[in-house]
Amino acid sequence: MTDDVRNIVLGVVAAGISATLGWLARTYLWKRKLRRKQAFFGLPDSSESLLVVNRDPAASEPAVHRFDVFALLELAALVKDCGAHIQVVTQDMVGQGFGERTEFCVGGPGSNRRMVAHMAAMLPGVRVNVDPEPGPDRGAFQIGGERYRLDAGVTEYVLLARLTAGDRREARPAFLFCGQRAINNQAATRYLARHHEKLARKHGNNSFVLLLKVVNSQAYGPDVVELVGDVTRAATSPLPAQAPASRSSHRA
């Protein structure tokens, strides 16, 4: 074998080894990233999850608002990426406990009975005004001693929560998307899809409640979202005695 042929063979072998090592490294990093995502969402391979659909309160017949449909599609993509399965159930047909399967619950207490139950059990510091009559506090959130009013199409709020049942390590989380309007629910699901890695690094597999502000949805849709703050402590603590009560509000 001449030196030139030997050099060519060695070069091909070195290139093959480098390509194999690169592929193994990329595969390892991809799998580690996937495992972290699965742990955050509580969705190991081939696991089952529950997507609880609300109803459109403005429709005379049972229906889902189109922005909530878009939110469901975004959540379905997240579940598929984790290699898990999803079951879609309407808000009045769930009939099962909490923590057995990862749950994604979409819609505020005015359109989702399951959200009412979750808020009553785990978010005692949150009150949502569900009064159908026009007024300055219609749709307002009260979190602890703070109130967040709805200015439709201009400034709107949505709660994004990851909650777990007690200290059971095997318990699966429930993700809540509680917006003042349907477009806010979609904004929260999109925020979760974009920022789940950052949220996992910050919160790990612990519970959290975030308040998000959707800015100028009439022009920008669900795309411009600002983090108002982490309201976990206020949302999971009883409302202060001096907190003002909103007329026809839902108290969690």
TrEMBL record:
Presence of the UniProt keyword Membrane in the record: yes
Transmembrane segments: 6-29
Keyword terms of this UniProt record: Membrane, Transmembrane, Transmembrane helix
Protein name as catalogued: Secreted protein
Source species of the chain: Streptomyces coelicoflavus
Lineage of producing organism: Bacteria, Bacillati, Actinomycetota, Actinomycetes, Kitasatosporales
